[in-house]
Design brief:
The structure is a homohexamer.
Chain A: E1 30-41, H1 44-53, H2 60-73, H3 75-78, E2 87-97, E3 102-113, H4 118-136, E4 144-154, E5 161-162
Chain lengths: ~170, ~170, ~170, ~170, ~170, ~170
């Protein structure tokens, strides 16, 4: 995943422009972390149903949380040039956003490896968001992910990175 | 995936609120289609590199296209309550959007089954978008998916559905 | 999965004793069902914690249910000679058994195919049971599955089969 | 897999009761081992056929052994909150038990990681047992797993654990 | 897999040269078969060990047979643009060829679908061959697959095809 | 994968002839490399089409390259007794061989682990070769892999190994 690359080059291609899996063998194995966020907009009535389920019956967010964790573990078979990364922790958090209206998903993945879990965090957030879509699409097919991005990363040569809030 | 459900209920839960995989055995096996779209915003310099690659060296979109197609085939192991669906075709199209600036991904999945490939199309679009992120994040970690939604579906009891354009 | 085999022969081997995947092409594609049960015995204090979680915090059975459903979808890659089967529904039910003490898991899988979902039901029940083990083993490593068996099957040439209750 | 957790808490849930993959980054990477056992009861005639096959034609136990080893490698995609574990060895042993009557499966998994391979051993034993079921169900649908439990574990902060024999 | 394509065009690309999964929805679902062969050359001493194992201890070919069958079931996740195909039977046969010297692998896959199992047969044969390599490479690293090709296919619009023997 | 085994024994079997996954826990984790080659023979007209595609439309080799990289990551679920290996780099190179006529595939896999990536390199080369077959079989069903072998390995107790060129 080449999170330590010098800026300016697309590291997934060699000099001839051929795609490859970037060599990370020389990097030290260190603790790394990445955090991604997805915002899911829906009809107010759909959000009301999700909030009701959180009380114990029809727990959409409980299913989506497990979807996100399973998704993180499948990242290397999902993203063509991504390295397998040794995940040490995955956390998925949800926040109800009445103004959106919808749900904000935040996925945090930790790893001890030679490259960081940015893609694992992005896949975890998107899979949790799409699991919400799957469970609610029968009543609200127009649900949309209105934002999906990396929020923060730690570890590796490039160190700490925090997205500018807007 | 219960695309024929009557509106108003969350079909992935039974009367007691327990999650299950919805019974689709009684539905007829028919041709179905779903189309999803993701818009990926990035720095102008990143988009310029992607456009250059399309000319033959460092083909980011060629890799992302295959990421999307592979993603579609892994949908049932990615989304917890999703049925395995018999995919008959997958197409991923890209459009350069200089104003975004970025890339618009459109994924079309066709299937012959008792439920439709909406989730396959959504996963295909999001995996293609995240593959673009993976390949460009070394030069532009702030790339974001600014929209991911279903555009159209055909087939099944609920018939044709087309997203309102805004 | 050869559920229609004539009794007396191990159908997964040819005349020379070599393992193969049994030919089912000539069988009609019909609705089929299988139901399996696992009983999980644990310390009374562990069962008390599981029952408390069912009320909304620390929902062990909610996670185990999704483990069982995902397990059913992975059966063909788990059991060497098993056919891929077109699953149309999966349900996992739990019953608290204070006398065991423990949890009774019942997994029902439906399919429309040329062979039945017996193995899918068995894997669903065992995966749900082992997910309970995974979540509780930090407090009760001695938890055991004291029984795992097929309860019922319907469909196919051999028709309805119901386990003798004892 | 949190094999070093202090007893009394369900470590797979956070303070709010939400499921997560437990953080193991701070644990040392050490050699660990786990051993699990499954007992499979069957009709005497079925056991006779299995014993005959061991002599070279229709080797049910040879297939079941490979089912168990493959199963161990798929544990992290099977059990929702389980960490991927670096397996260094898998052994599956069978013993014919004429009194059961049936087969006793013993699976030993070794790993070098921050958490132990208990779930890998449990999945290996259950998959081997269910592979026996798959191969013999055409002649004996009533075969049952009458016991599945952890026998022993070594390594990690909680050290050596041996099941009380009864 | 487009086995019915008119000759002369690379059907996995659209008019603009973009890769896609070919649309097979309009084709009838019919029984189809494909047979592939791999020849594995090795040192005479290695072949002697394999032949000895076939008698019951260290059964290399028994393991390779299961590798081939599992490989067939994983074809759609292995080959980027390949459709998932409904496999109804898989058979792997081995022949000792003292003159090669080595083992000839023949994999036959049957399916009922809109496209044929050619790739499944090719993957089954190559995986069985590479499993032989895996098991014997510690004593004979120079083992090579000297030929891997399709032998025969049946079904679909293009009908029966038999390789010219040379 | 036992690349350090003493010659003369089939290390994937124990003393009784039962298959197992070899214990590698005592080996040091070191950088290792393996390189494999596949030669794919085809009709001259097919090779011409592939060469044309390399110029930007219908890029068969670009798709095959990604097939090979994905294949490398799936090795442990493909080869029954193979250890999961921590891959740090994968490169797939193609050379047009007008005399063959056809394409020479060379796959190089690097890893930091207790055993080497020989099987990963062999699977990467064969999957890339079979992806070429998949994409061209509609116009040339007789394409064959005329050679697939290990070329070189480095690392581990057995050190450097280079195939004799002939």
């Amino acid at each position: 995943m080449a999170d330590d690359a010098s800026p300016g080059e697309l590291t997934h291609f060699d000099g001839a422009g051929a795609a490859h899996m970037v060599d990370v063998a020389a990097k030290p194995e260190t603790p790394r972390m990445a955090r991604a966020r997805a915002r899911v907009r829906m009809a107010p009535a759909t959000l009301t149903k999700i909030e009701a389920g959180a009380l114990g019956k029809g727990d959409v967010l409980g299913v989506a949380r497990l979807g996100g964790i399973s998704g993180a573990k499948q990242t290397a078979t999902q993203i063509p040039l991504c390295h397998p990364v040794r995940i040490t922790a995955v956390t998925i958090e949800f926040e109800i956003d009445a103004e959106l209206p919808g749900v904000v998903v935040e996925a945090t993945v930790e790893a001890v490896d030679r490259t960081g879990p940015e893609m694992e965090a992005m896949i975890a957030a998107s899979t949790a968001a799409l699991t919400i879509y799957d469970m609610c699409k029968a009543i609200d097919r127009g649900i949309e992910v209105v934002d999906l991005h990396l929020v923060e990363k730690r570890g590796g040569k490039s160190g700490h990175w925090l997205r500018d809030s807007k």
